[in-house]
Amino acid sequence: DKFNEEIDYLGARVNFSSSGASANTLSKYFPRVMELMAKGALNPNFTSEEFEKQKERTIEGIKASEKDVAQNARRISQALSYGKDHPYGEFTTTESVEKLNLEDVKNYYQSFYVPQNAYLVIVGDVETKEVKKLAKKHFQNWKKSELPQQKLPEVNNVAETQVNFVDFPNAVQSEVQVTNTIQLKKGDPDYFAVLLANKILGGGGEARLFLNLREDKGYTYGAYSSTGDDKYVARFVASASVRNAVTDSAVVAFLDELHRIRNEKVSAEELKNAKAKYTGDFVLALERPSTIAQYALNIEKDNLPEDFYQTYLKKINAVTAEDIQKAAQKYYLADNARIVVVGKGSEVAENLEKLTYNGKEIPVKYFDKNAEPIEKPNYNKKVAADMTAEKVFDKYIAAIGGEEAVEDVESVYMMAQAEMQGQKLDLSTKVTSQGKSLTEIGMGGNVIQKQVFNGEEGFVVARGQKVPFTEQQVAAAKADSHPFPELNAEEASLQGIETVNEQEAYAVQMDGTTTNYYSTQTGLKVQSVKTVQQGPQTMT
């Protein structure tokens, strides 16, 4: 529309969100861009068409993330820490989004987009006098309105350290978060000690968690921590994605590091390096105008002293090893930690049940994917002694029409759509009974990647480069390149029975990367999970 066209013409950026608006522009266009931002913020055009588009996009995003173990671990951990009735722990589900209508959006805007709840921060090559004049001109008609009075639910930590486990049968690794809620504000006397404590514990590749869990033990590609601050309530979180086989050992390693930083003073070298890193990061951040704007906003909304950021480095450098130990003892609750583990129950739950620390058993409590407490699932469902992968395949072939009908199929063509970073991807795959296959990934009508296999060799074309298949890719392609891989899956093995989409299914490992799941009742294939190594990351 004309609004967006003018912003593009001016080379500016104007963004609106549920919590405010922001703009970035050349100084010479500042008056006009400020006017456009004010118009958008004070006179939003909420249309049914845009609402439905955004609603559909949100639902698609939720569905796309349903099997994303890392993303689910984050939201489950927040829900368990804060409670699902707290804004910080609230779940967004397809059902909750479906219930929304345009009036809900308008009511939210009318209730919370009010001048009593607003700050206007401007940084750049502009004159204060001009800024005040423009602010008065564009915002003087903003109607006063009282903010709704809301009482937040009380948030409490667990009485004793415990494991909260959530089963994700498709997980190839476990997501581990050791967490507790904290009361920490930027203006608190020990704020700077907490910053350095976190930097030493899990603030990067040189921190203790990384050196222990990755460099020393090789459990993960990275282990980190974060310590939040908030006017209401925040969290301390230490986390890593670890191999299933070492999930219980990783939990112990996390607890070791928490107890260590609580019980022992950090070394002079660690303290020196942490201060140097903070100094460097702080100076670099000041080069960004957005940082200056955020600092100015923090001073106002958090009631900080006017010289808070002017004396920032002085306060960092004044922190002692004793200060860090006291902060760790106050905020890193090793004896009241909630250890959230999201992973494959059939592979990790048994060892988690055996966990002890300092001679004390660590209880395990079970939750579903909506963070609701449940009884311990049965992860050891017995498969009949005479059941084999071949019999599972026979039942599947019979369920889809029988072997004779299946063998008459010469090729299968599949199409799918996905969304990545706001861009829609089109995926098409064709496989033939001769063991050949073609896969194309498109975006905006253009093919951005193509994969071809002729039965014996193959290649990938992407960004103008043609790369031949490796031996492993050839082996995987031979297993996959058939309309019904079950007909020639000689190496397949029956792994057991697992729950998939709330129904029991036989898990059959097809090769080193693919596991198929077949309903024990109907015989139909209900899920196929493929694991791909992308550099240091394992993707499912």
TrEMBL record:
Where in the numbering of this chain does the Peptidase M16 C-terminal domain appear?
Answer: 99-277
* Descriptive protein name: Insulinase family protein
Signal sequence annotation: none
Q: Which Gene Ontology molecular-function terms are recorded?
A: metal ion binding
Q: Which Pfam families match?
A: Peptidase_M16_C
Q: Give the family, as the similarity comment puts it.
A: Belongs to the peptidase M16 family.
